# Entry
Amino acid sequence: MADVMLDTPESTSWLEIAGLNPADAQRAVRAAQDSGEPLASVVRRLGFLSDMAIADALAKAHGLARLSAKDFAEEDPAEGAINPEFLNSSQACIAQINEDGVLLALADPSVPDIADAVALATGKPVTLALAPLADIEAALARYFGAPEDTADPTHTSSADDADAEHLRDLASEAPVVRLVNDLIKDALANRASDIHVEPYRDRLRIRLRIDGVLHDRESPSASLAQLVVSRIKIIADLDIAERRRPQDGRARVSISGTPLDLRVATTPSAHGESVVIRLLEDRDSEVDLHNLGLSEKRRNPFAENAGRPLWPDFGGWPHRRGENHHLGWCDQHVEHPRAQSHFHRRPGGIPD
# Structure
């Protein structure tokens, strides 16, 4: 039998330990009851908590050790004694085997009979530990190769549709809407050309490209990553249920009275979807030379020389919003009949 010392706290107490707010905790519990899935799987699927946060909270709630990726063996310690499909479906992996017994990593300790089955297969006592699901899946892939997808396509499609609808509702709630709006306002106030949203295992990295250089901004909680990405996809009219293929779209918004044209591109990544937003002032709005960041010493010669027929090529200027706005101002104000600007806009410049 398995050598398991497992505390039995209330099944939802770990959500409080993880710091999940009561409203989201209730939604997760309700979704788990409706779907029959383990609560940890539902919380992970809805993007409320990261893998690491779930593992940390479950380990504390159940009094188990918490493993990291370096605690797993390089090759299958059981040498094929346990069916990999069983381990995959149980979200479990043997981390180590030694003279003391088997160290079994779990993503969710509520999975029944897994310890007894491993003890029976190996003939050794089993000690349970918690690990992030991503680390367990990486170890299983290293031991046995990537698992085959045997899911029923019809069931998967309908489940994805339900998930997408629920995700759309969550991403449309006030806190997420406000967070994304504040992000775009911050980018506009700092004259950023791009916003980069990149999910990592333990954080959501936000960076603004200002004058060609990426600058980090305060990172929201990793548990908000999927909701933030979904909100941006809703704004750009992208398919929030599609997370495995790149997508691109556009949107016109007004931030603090400034009309903006947003170009949005999403890319699947190891921990979710990365998003890049290009900010372009609406082509219908008038470009003011005084707002382009030029000193008076530079601004006056620029305005005086812009109408010359053979004015220099701007194609080599730094790639940033200022470049396109300089060109936009010239288009709006240069009316010399012989002036033909050699303005080479890059793709994604001021919209037509």
In short: DSSP finds twelve helices and ten strands in the chain. Confidence is low (pLDDT under 50) at residues 1-10, 149-159, 310-323, 336-352. Residues 153-171 form the longest helix (19 residues).
